[in-house]
Structures are given as structure tokens and as C-alpha cells.
Design goal:
By secondary structure, this protein is an alpha/beta fold. It has helices spanning 3-16, 22-32, 36-39, 49-65, 69-73, 94-106, 123-131, 144-157, 170-174, 199-202, 207-210, 213-216, 218-225, 247-257, and strands at residues 75-78, 81-84, 112-117, 135-141, 161-165, 181-184, 236-241, 262-267, 273-280. It is 43% helix and 17% strand. The model has no long low-confidence stretch (mean pLDDT 95). One of its GO terms (molecular function) is peptide chain release factor N(5)-glutamine methyltransferase activity.
């Protein structure tokens, strides 16, 4: 069959199975191994049998189980780079690119120490290390498997990161590392909301990277509780990605823990609460 016929039939098949038809285009382009622009010039060409077999197998698996495109291919695109992903790491969301862009736009040209907490596949730490070459970047995660993948991604992309195994800020404290910027996209979905998620998310993203107790606030509380032990005493920044209804809660947690911190909630391109930014010129001693 010609490419346009394969694509039309596959799109209809996905639609009949309540899946996004565009997945057919993504998968076919992947197995053909061509760029997006090249893909659309090949519509009248015949699809090789070997490609058809791989394509149909992946298409059927996605229709039946919801397995995401990134798990089929083993890669996810983030900030114009391809990252290895697997079952131990969260598939990066486009919204997190806005967190990166905010840091890059507001970062000082001076050398700074950045720590990415709960790094997963390493997308935040690696992207910041590459976009801000003046920075010294650390990344922590409690998952050995996630850290192994993050280290592979850093090596592939040429990013200099110090990876530390442990829970949230504890590895930094253990190594007596202080930072100018703490950044994190922690788990923030309440377990009560699990049934609202698509099977593509809840059955394939690691639960540890999705869900947090206490109405989705447990991870923020754990990080904020030890901030004074890890932020530079001469001042620093804290940046969290948040759920779109968590802005006031996370803002309140930060202001209660560190009253001298100026805290703001930043909305994303769709007008939803997306980032909480805390900043202070200096940290008062913890009484």
C-alpha cells in the first residue's frame, strides 16, 4: 500500500478504538526513519513490508493498551533534544519546557549552583546544564534505575551533572552542598485523582513520579522543610512546577517556612497556574 493509504486506515483504526488518530502519523514517521518534512513528500510512495509489520504491531499495542509513543520508541523530545525514557521515568510534558524557559530567561550570567530534585530521566538538570554553561548542576533521585537513565542521557548529550542518590534534598545535605537555585517537578497528583487520568498516563508513568499524599502536597512539604539547609545563606531561588490548582497552597507553604521569601505564582501559556517561584536576598537564621 501507498503511504497515504496506510496512514488513512491506521488513523481510522485508532479513532474506532478511541485513541488519538495523530498517533498513526507519529508511529509511521518513526518506523520510516524520516523527518517530518520528508514524511509528507512520500505520501504516494509504497511502504516497505518490514516497516508495515513493525508499524502494525505498535499500532495494535497502542490501541489495546494505551502504551505511549515514547515507550514504544524509547525516546521523548524535550526542549529540542531527544532523551531516553523508560518505565522508571516520567515522560516529559510540554509544560515543563516553560519552567526551563523561565529559568533561562531570569538566570544571572554569574556562575550559580543549581539542584534538580527528583530528576527522573534528567531532563531538567541536563537541559539547564546545556542552556546555562556557567552553572554547576546537581541532580537527585531516590530511584537507582532513574539515575542510571539520567546518567546515560547526560553522557549522550554532553552535559556535566553531579548525580546523587537519595530522597529529595537529603543527598545535598549529606554532602554539605548549598545551592543558589532549587528546582523541582515533583509528584503532585492526589491518589484520589487517579481515576481521572488516561490509561496512557496512569498505567505507564511510574506511580512514584505521579502521586503524592496530602492532596498532592506531600513532596512540596518534604522539600520545603529542608530548604534552609540547602539554599545559599546569601539568598537563593526555589522553583516548583505545580498542578493548576496548587498555586496558593504551595505559595503558602513556602511563605510559612521562609517568611523572608518573596513568593509568586506564574501562569503558563494557557493561563493556568504552572510555576511557584520563591526568592530571597538572604536567609535569616533558623530559630
Amino acid at each position: 500500500m501507498k503511504q497515504h493509504e496506510v496512514l488513512r486506515r491506521a488513523s481510522l483504526f485508532l479513532e474506532e478504538n478511541n485513541r488519538e488518530p495523530k498517533m498513526a502519523e507519529l508511529l509511521l514517521q518513526h518506523y520510516l526513519g524520516v523527518s517530518r518534512s520528508k514524511f509528507f513528500t512520500m505520501m504516494n510512495e509504497e511502504v516497505p513490508e518490514s516497516v508495515l509489520n513493525q508499524f502494525h504491531h505498535a499500532l495494535t499495542e497502542h490501541a489495546e493498551t494505551g502504551v505511549p509513543f515514547e515507550h514504544i520508541t524509547g525516546f521523548a523530545s524535550f526542549y529540542s533534544r531527544d532523551f531516553l525514557v523508560n518505565e522508571y521515568t516520567l515522560i516529559p510534558r510540554p509544560e515543563t519546557e516553560e519552567l526551563i524557559a523561565y529559568v533561562v530567561q531570569t538566570a544571572s550570567a554569574e556562575p550559580m549552583r543549581i539542584a534538580d530534585i527528583g530528576t527522573g530521566s534528567g531532563i531538567i538538570a541536563i537541559t539547564l546544564a546545556l542552556e546555562l554553561p556557567q552553572a554547576i548542576v546537581y541532580a537527585t533521585d531516590i530511584s537507582k534505575e532513574a539515575l542510571k537513565l539520567a546518567e546515560k542521557n547526560a553522557a549522550r548529550l554532553g552535559a556535566d551533572i553531579t548525580f546523587l542518590e537519595g530522597d529529595y534534598l537529603e543527598p545535598l545535605i549529606d554532602h554539605k552542598i548549598t545551592t543558589d537555585l532549587i528546582i523541582s517537578n515533583p509528584p503532585y497528583i492526589s491518589p484520589d485523582e487517579k481515576m481521572l487520568l488516561s490509561d496512557t498516563v496512569k498505567n505507564f508513568d511510574p506511580k512514584e513520579a505521579l502521586f503524592a499524599e496530602d492532596n498532592g502536597l506531600a513532596a512540596y512539604k518534604a522539600i520545603i522543610r529542608r530548604l534552609r539547609d540547602t539554599l545559599n545563606q546569601n539568598g537563593g531561588n526555589v522553583l516548583f512546577e505545580i498542578g493548576h490548582r496548587q498555586g496558593s497552597d504551595v505559595q503558602g507553604l513556602l511563605q510559612t517556612a521562609i517568611p523572608e521569601m518573596d513568593v509568586s505564582v506564574i501562569r503558563d501559556i494557557n493561563g493556568k497556574q504552572r510555576i511557584v517561584h520563591g526568592f530571597c536576598d538572604s536567609l535569616a537564621s533558623d530559630k
